[in-house]
Amino acid sequence: MYLIGDYIRHNREKMGISQRELAEGICTEVTLSRIENNKQAPKRTMFMKIIKKLALPPSLYPVFMNEREVELYRMQHEINQHLIHERHDDIKDLLEDMKRKSRGEVIFEQYVAYVHAVLLMKSNPKEALKALKRAVKISVKDLNPKSIPRQVLTQDEMGMFKTWLFVMNVSGSEIQPLKYFTALWTTLRTKWWHIKKFPDCILKLHICYQNGWDRMAE
């Protein structure tokens, strides 16, 4: 049996990353140290972000949520259903409501920013490109391609990067998407090597890397 802090520390060390690397985009290094030493319990949203960075199953955390978190997850599910069925007109008011209710919750704030960018992709790719960059930067502060392989990205962040690079490519951006794509592929090989089954977004990155940008939209 693990205490929650011991569990996080054990898996961080197993993955071979520092407290600074794990804490980046989530909390301060001091906060993570307190959590790992069982002196502070993480909020559910913070724990979920840590677990995603460590590529661990979130189901291990007890499912205790406050009323606000339940509502935000319900809204996220509803928005996802509208996106799947391309009912974009039904999203706008819901997204504004979620934006208001998610203040201070980084995971949900990033989700709202990402969906806002996705809604712009067909009508205004260049604005979507800017919006996607803002969404990614909520948790990934350094977007220099040379710095990306040194960072620990979650599968959600990898998925946002994939969308950003696709829009970057089709919008004719002057930025070279291949530089970022190569950096992500390096991250995949160095940080996710221990995962037996890669998440879908990472498999798609692999396909794109092997077959070129024409497969990026799939």
Short description:
The protein has 218 residues and is an all-alpha fold. Helices cover 61% and strands 0% of the residues.
Task: Explain this structure.
This protein is mostly helical and 218 residues long. It folds into 3 domains: 4-58, lambda repressor-like DNA-binding domains (434 Repressor (Amino-terminal Domain)); 65-139; 140-218, no CATH class. It is 61% helix and 0% strand. It contains 11 helices and no strands. It has helices at 4-15, 19-23, 29-36, 44-53, 67-84, 92-101, 106-120, 125-137, 155-170, 177-191, 200-211. Helix 7 runs antiparallel to helix 8 (125-137) and helix 9 runs antiparallel to helix 10 (177-191). The longest helix has 18 residues, at 67-84. It starts with a helix and ends in a 7-residue tail after the last helix.
The N- to C-terminal Cα distance equals: 42 Å
Q: Using only CA atoms, what is the Rg?
A: 18 Å
Give the overall average pLDDT: 80
What is the number of independent domains? 3
User: What is the overall number of helices?
Assistant: 11
Q: Count of DSSP E strands?
A: 0
Q: What is the makeup of the main sheet?
A: none
Low-confidence stretches at least 5 residues in length (pLDDT < 50)?
213-218
Q: Which range best describes the helical content: under 10%, 10-25%, 25-40%, 40-55%, 55-70% or over 70%? A: 55-70%
